[in-house]
Write a structure and sequence with these properties.
Elements (H helix, E strand, L loop, with lengths): L7 H17 L3 H6 L3 E11 L9 E10 L3 E10 L5 E12 L10 H13 L1
Antiparallel strand pairs: 1-4, 2-3, 3-4
Length: about 120
């Protein structure tokens, strides 16, 4: 069909979120080594227009909201050099410990989120 398969948009969201966490906090691998996992509990994608094979895409992720153990991200995908989004979406996650139960966001991570929200 020449179009980007619809489930790949969620993969692009994941890569952008992983990059955001790595750049603003630390790599997921380090979180996992500390016994933390960021589990997806909800995802939505809104497809505004199709992406085609070989399109150069710009994917942005930003934290939208958070609670004790919950973290939500907002996403936007656009073709490089074009202002309009081809897709947008949100995901909600829960920090889970080794026992598989929700745990609080790490204090230093919460401070980063709070400092970013204070500047926007």
């Amino acid at each position: 069909m020449g179009l980007l398969y619809h489930v790949h948009y969620l993969e692009l969201f994941e890569w952008a979120r992983s990059d955001w966490v790595r750049n603003c906090y630390r790599p997921y691998k380090e979180l996992e080594d500390d016994g933390l996992t960021l589990v997806a509990v909800e995802a939505t994608v809104r497809y505004h227009r199709p992406a085609y094979y070989d399109d150069l895409l710009l994917v942005t992720a930003r934290p939208l909201d958070w609670g004790r153990s919950r973290l939500e991200f907002d996403y936007r995908i656009a073709r490089e050099g074009e202002p309009d989004a081809i897709a947008s979406g949100r995901t909600a996650h829960c920090f889970v410990g080794r026992e598989g139960k929700p745990v609080a966001l790490p204090v230093d991570f919460r401070r980063i989120l709070e400092s970013l929200s204070a500047t926007t």
